[in-house]
Amino acid sequence: MIDGDAGSCSVEFTITTADGKPVAAATVKVHIAYGFGGFHKLDLQAGTNSDGKVKFTGLPSRVRRSTLEFEASKDLLAGTATLDPAKECRGKREIKLGKGNAAAN
After folding, report:
1. How many CB atoms lie within 10 A of CB 10?
2. By CB distance 3.0 to 4.6 Å, which of 10, 28, 73, 104 could disulfide with 57?
């Protein structure tokens, strides 16, 4: 778990391979611009546990571009997921990693 200390929203991720197996030690990153005019900026990065899970807490409910894009990767595999914290302050997502930029929900 990593705390951005910028709000009350959170999101929990489960990172899996294309066949649904959890990915341990995958890296998940997000860049957040928030506040008036996106003046405040925050870059967060965390690794998954042995169950392929990671949680980001302390996210702001209002961000500059309305959605946050989380990028997960391990070795040559990658995937992304988005979250609009204004509409879903407490989110859960799964990111399936694939070769290149495989998108997730």
Report:
1. 19
2. 10
62, 23 in Cβ contact below 8 A? no
Domain count, the chain: 1
Is the pTM here over 0.85, yes or no?
yes
- 22 is in which domain, residue-wise? 2-100
Confidence of residue 35 (pLDDT cuts 50, 70, 90): confident
**30: in domain:** yes
- Ordered DSSP codes for 40-84: EEEEEEEE--TTSEEEEEEE-S-BTTS-EEEEEEETTEEEEEEE-
Residue 91 is part of a domain; what is its CATH number? 2.60.40.1120
Give me the pLDDT at residue 100, please: 65
Does residue 34 surpass a pLDDT of 80? Answer: yes
CA distance 52 to 22: 5
